[in-house]
Amino acid sequence: MATQQFTPERYYVTLGNHEPVLRIADGDTVVTSTLDAQGYDAAETRRSEGSNPMTGPFYVEGAEPGDALVVTLDRIEPNREYGWARTIVAPNVLDPEYVYALPPEDDWQFARWRVDTRAETATLVEPADTMLGQLTIPIRPMVGCFGVAPPHSQAISTATSGEYGGNMDYRGFVAGVTVRFPVFETGALFHIGDVHAVQSDGEIGGTGIEISSEVEFSVRVEKNATLSWPWADDPRYILTVGNARPLDQAVQHATTEMLRRLRHQFRLDPASARILMGQCAQYDVGNIYDPAYTMVCKLSKHLLP
Amino acid sequence: MATQQFTPERYYVTLGNHEPVLRIADGDTVVTSTLDAQGYDAAETRRSEGSNPMTGPFYVEGAEPGDALVVTLDRIEPNREYGWARTIVAPNVLDPEYVYALPPEDDWQFARWRVDTRAETATLVEPADTMLGQLTIPIRPMVGCFGVAPPHSQAISTATSGEYGGNMDYRGFVAGVTVRFPVFETGALFHIGDVHAVQSDGEIGGTGIEISSEVEFSVRVEKNATLSWPWADDPRYILTVGNARPLDQAVQHATTEMLRRLRHQFRLDPASARILMGQCAQYDVGNIYDPAYTMVCKLSKHLLP
Amino acid sequence: MATQQFTPERYYVTLGNHEPVLRIADGDTVVTSTLDAQGYDAAETRRSEGSNPMTGPFYVEGAEPGDALVVTLDRIEPNREYGWARTIVAPNVLDPEYVYALPPEDDWQFARWRVDTRAETATLVEPADTMLGQLTIPIRPMVGCFGVAPPHSQAISTATSGEYGGNMDYRGFVAGVTVRFPVFETGALFHIGDVHAVQSDGEIGGTGIEISSEVEFSVRVEKNATLSWPWADDPRYILTVGNARPLDQAVQHATTEMLRRLRHQFRLDPASARILMGQCAQYDVGNIYDPAYTMVCKLSKHLLP
Amino acid sequence: MATQQFTPERYYVTLGNHEPVLRIADGDTVVTSTLDAQGYDAAETRRSEGSNPMTGPFYVEGAEPGDALVVTLDRIEPNREYGWARTIVAPNVLDPEYVYALPPEDDWQFARWRVDTRAETATLVEPADTMLGQLTIPIRPMVGCFGVAPPHSQAISTATSGEYGGNMDYRGFVAGVTVRFPVFETGALFHIGDVHAVQSDGEIGGTGIEISSEVEFSVRVEKNATLSWPWADDPRYILTVGNARPLDQAVQHATTEMLRRLRHQFRLDPASARILMGQCAQYDVGNIYDPAYTMVCKLSKHLLP
Q1: Shortest distance, CA B169 to any CA of chain A (angstroms)
Q2: I need a labelling partner for C266 at 20 to 30 A (CA). Which of A154, B113, D1, D110 fits?
Q3: Interval A221-276: pLDDT, tens
């Protein structure tokens, strides 16, 4: 149950069976930092190629294929003043005929936002000439990309996601949330990075407000787990995560996994699970921008035995 | 600005250019009732075939193609004690391999819920033998299917939806919400029905808690409107609605329409609209069960000029 | 078994339960004409609004809901020299990022093709300034939109399609093909129009070479049929048709219907049907442009008992 | 321009930046063998885990990122008498409601087919009790999975596919076809395996007739190529390949790539390319079973300058 400080020196742009940067024990807490999506650190110095360079992987002692790695996001704290964002709405979330009629020229600008972690706000600094002026919005720092090494010794780009987690870009992955990942490799090999100060549902801008960050997380190993896709818990809900294209298939993964979770974790009979889901299930759109989209199925904890 | 009491005598299972049941003026309020999705009334007597028989259409004086019909849902009050629901989770929201492995036999039951409109709860009465027991959940009565006559003199089943509204099955369409529909026929021809005491996001049970209801709504005509898809306002958000399959296309319609709404109603420049959407847009899943799915794009009113 | 000459005077832009233009008997053949997709006739005079005005509906005596209407396309012969086409590739079949980068300006031209029905060719006349010059391609005249009145007294735009047929835009619907439609209304109410001299798979140009035409077809009523979606036969294949968005769902409809057809028409046991389909099924892309896409599942007649 | 005999000793179940098994020169021909999809060799001895173990990778001298690797499939010859296949129709290509109603029990059998490479037929041996009896069908041996190392040092499962090729399961990849892959790693790192004696369009059985095989292929390096997705040539057509889910996105990739190919390889002006595609493009369904589906866009060589 130690707390380990870790200063990263190299970064990966795939989640895979890479050489671990640190071995940690079941129950440990790690305090470390992440680069922004293009590889820039707290000093706005480029430390890695993009996109979404990962801190890690962390080898968790005792984690074996078939277990779950339980990760609690204890703290997510941007460590510099400015974040950046694209200024588009992603063409894949717009009607094709509308995209057709758009002028192509002005899309590749970037916005610069000043992030005040104490006030929990972000203020638009550039571009300075829009009707938004210096718009200030609330922030809610979240982890865009985290997870374990995927199965079959694959190494998969941090642009995308799967059963192992990855670039889910779900704005619900904030401090205080616990996420369980299915373990595919000995040691689990946990990777983390790509913090956003805030983002829309769906990450439809193609980015959130991308920023380097300090992160603190704790790990626990759950032996012989039964999950196929990530499970999460926040203070009010249980959540299951599906990552796929199209959105319909992400819905299928998340919904099926919630039925499995109700059965395996909460021992609900199938009819109960279906009746409960049929009137009470909720969905959050994680991302509809990355190669795999993310949908989250949720149930209020009040409803559960 | 009259209030008109209307007792329906016949019902339609399409939204179309039907003989109006009542002519009302711009500004009028109508108090009437709706059948449940299978055509049963407050006395649990079958009054129409299903599914989703409509009360109406109401001819609104002064409404012309190119205008918007602005409908405020003033009151939605179930008028009997029991509602029913299917007890499935719809196979289209489950992984195909999971559906494959399901036992087919027990899916076509119905659940019976006792609805207490004063306590704002529903209590499961049948089946009585599940682990849920007599589960009580909060209700939030909503209109499943409403809208105007579709374009080109079409008559379209109340099973589905389109630019004209229809069976959107969005649980945000509760009392206090205002919805604008594009008008395609002279008189707009407004239809309403299919009240649910409550439903999940996505109506993944294939039904909500289906119940007959009293409804009260007010209409207003907005001349020369610019909407292509329904717009809505609730106390906290502006909303745009996209109806289509797959979910990705419903997202495209709703998102494109929000960009149009920001431009036409709020006069935002395109860059402002994109930047705002990119960090602040939200989505609600309306339904992922009907022939056309429904996605809702939302923006907090706090963010708007 | 009469042959009826019919000269249309009015046209519908929906398939629906309209007043029949002619009553015909089981076994009759009809010789008539169709307008092009924008309503122009053999003399290039506009006779109807678009899109896809229908000749008909024809009331077929003896056809009742639950039967099949068996339509043989005996002859499809363009009746003027010039056809037109859009010059786009539809944005929905292109990568959104590619559409984003396209110049929007030059897309709304039309091409003009000279159609030589004797030589069975079309020659590009306008635009005259492309590298294609006066390209000559083979033609294969086909019916874009035909079918029966849809269920539940719906009237549905000829832009789209469903179980009842409609705007399937499949280039396999040429002379010599027989198509069975499920009957939903007494008299079946058969509509036909929208002939193309030729089109790509998928109708990805948004149109084929659109042209007015003479058409000759014969009808037969099959009592107590078992089809849910259109079935077709050409000289070499049996075919089933699925109409839906997205393409995945059109595949599902066509494939499921082929399994049903193998069972009901050919009395194959389920394992045989699956094994045969697993190695021998073929697919044609009908259209991927209209509101509902069309996929065709095929099996060679050589493989069938 | 040497011909190299290569006997594989180890196999990979990912396409990745693995240690090459052989270095070959631009212009060389390789004669080697492949295991079946579950790792069984010519003697029906298991030599690797599944699925789709790859022979290779072959390092091609002179191939650099940005080039194309041009692979000609010279010969594909099953090297044993029996192949196997699943006996399902994949649930993802069936209507969800239909899957719901299917009996789950009898799906996990395998069929055994006797393959006669001289007669070019396969004959069903097991199950022996279906109405098909000893059905004999024509074979057309093809390569299911082949390609180069993917970008960003990824290692991606041979279950799926991408820009780099992979498990495309397209029945058009037969002897005589040439395929160009974009090169992402120095040496290209070509992998090949997963031969089918035959399969349906879409590989809707979940497998083709899976069999070990001798394969002979030749490689050529094309410097500074312009392709984003695989291009192919067969005797009659030029082809472009898109791999993605859903099928709509695979269509988008293949169609966009064909427009690019017409521009870059054939120097067609954009209007010509669009007009040609709009009337003459064809599509083949590669697979609609694997995690990424495959669509092929084709144009007849007769139409090209």
Answers
A1: 12
A2: D110
A3: 999 999 999 999 999 999 999 999 999 999 999 999 999 999 999 999 999 999 99
Cβ neighbours, 10 Å, residue D224? 8
pLDDT in the model for residue D108: 59
User: What fold is seen in the domain B3-78+142-198+210-222?
Assistant: Jelly Rolls (2.60.120)
**Residues 6 or more apart from B77 whose CB is under 8 A from it?**
B117, B141, B213, B214, B215
Contacts with D16 from chain A: Cβ below 8 Å: 154-155
* pLDDT confidence bin for A105, thresholds 50/70/90: low
Strands D178-182, B55-60: pairing is unpaired
**Biggest distance spanned by C-alpha atoms of chain A:** 58
Label residue B185 by pLDDT band (50, 70, 90).
very high
When pLDDT is averaged across residues C233-240 and rounded to a whole number, the result is: 98
CATH of D232-303, one of 3.10.28.20, 1.10.287.110, 1.10.510.10, 3.40.50.300: 3.10.28.20
CATH hierarchy code of domain C231-303 = 3.10.28.20
Residue of D nearest to B249 (CA): D248
Cis amide prior to C246 (ω within 30 degrees): yes
Query: In the predicted model, what is the mean pLDDT of chain D?
Result: 96
| Count of pairs with CB atoms under 8 A, one residue in C, one in D | 190
Considering the domain delimited by D3-78+142-200+211-222, tell me its CATH architecture: Sandwich (2.60)
**pLDDT value for A107:** 53
Buried b (16+ CB within 10 A) or exposed e, C34-52: bbbbbbbbbeeeebbebbb
Is the per-residue pLDDT at B159 higher than 80? yes
Does the pLDDT of residue C107 top 60, yes or no?
no
Show which subunits contact D, needing at least 3 CB pairs below 8 angstroms. Answer: A, B, C
CATH 2.60.120.580 in chain C is located at 3-79+141-222
Residue A304, chain B, CB below 8 Å: the answer is no
- Single pTM value for the model: 0.98
- Judged by a CB distance cut-off of 8 A, whether residue C76 touches chain D is no
Looking at the predicted complex, does its ipTM rise above 0.95? yes
Interface membership of A160 toward D (CB under 8 Å): no
Phi, psi at A280, each rounded to 5°: -125, -10
Mean confidence (pLDDT) of chain B: 96
Domain C3-79+141-222 has CATH 2.60.120.580: yes
